[in-house]
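Many introductory courses stop at the sequence. We go one step further.
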Amino acid sequence: MTHQRTLTAAHWGVYEVEYDDNGKATRLHPFSKDPDPSPIGLHMLSDEVTRLRVRRPAVRKSWLEKGPGAAPEKRGQEAFVEVDWSEGKSTTFVVAVQVEALDRTRLLSDIATVLSDHHVNILSATTTTGRDRITRLRFTFELADIAHLSSILAAVKRVESVYDAYRIVPTTT
């Protein structure tokens, strides 16, 4: 009997998911159109990996008792305390991006609209335009899921006259 298959994606590539008669995912196969499939993701459904999955959120004890930023010196040494899903704190990430575009009317508005449409909270925005009419816009915003950054940047790049958009990663000196 042929079992239903769907596609799933991970950092390592695309895989075909095979299901049993009850609709439970049972096995992964390399995507048939991938010329060089990675074997890494084939084990995502194995008992070993399943056993290691997060079943409920856990936070450092000092974070739970005193809030974010408490006892950073204990990071990696302190015990984790499991909490109910309802108690898990929502997490946001602060991201800085730079957008480069040919200057035009409504450019800032159009980019801000795209960011808002993607449900990010803009914390700051600065723009500079040179004599060459190239505008550099820097945005700092909160993002609920860092995995969405690539789709947000792709949407910004589709704005008229934008030719690049990328994350600015802070450097340490």
